[in-house]
Design goal:
By secondary structure, this protein is an alpha+beta fold. The chain has two helices and four strands, in the order ααββββ. The chain has a domain at about 30-100: Beta-lactamase Inhibitory Protein, Chain:B, domain 1, CATH 3.30.1450. It is rod-shaped and about 80 Å long.
Amino acid sequence: MNKLTTGSLTTLFSLFLTAPFTTAETITLPIGEQTKQSAIDLPVRSMNKQDVLRDFGDPQEITDAVGEPPISQWVYEEYVVYFEDNWVLYSVVKHPSEADD
């Protein structure tokens, strides 16, 4: 056999040997199912601190405002509320721990 044919056969044989190991698994997660707690009620953007206290109760922890504009956070058991001055910017559900599974 000539060198070209031998090289081609060797390359082809190598591809057949490695083909089963070159696949990847794709995992998709439907939106809204990233966390078990996605169905809980959260404070919404533009609520003020008094409304959050009235509707959701006292937080477990309050951090002092930092930066400009001043951003603070209130930590609840299942989520954290971020404020700019007196107004809610975002409410973020905490990632569940493996112990919760």
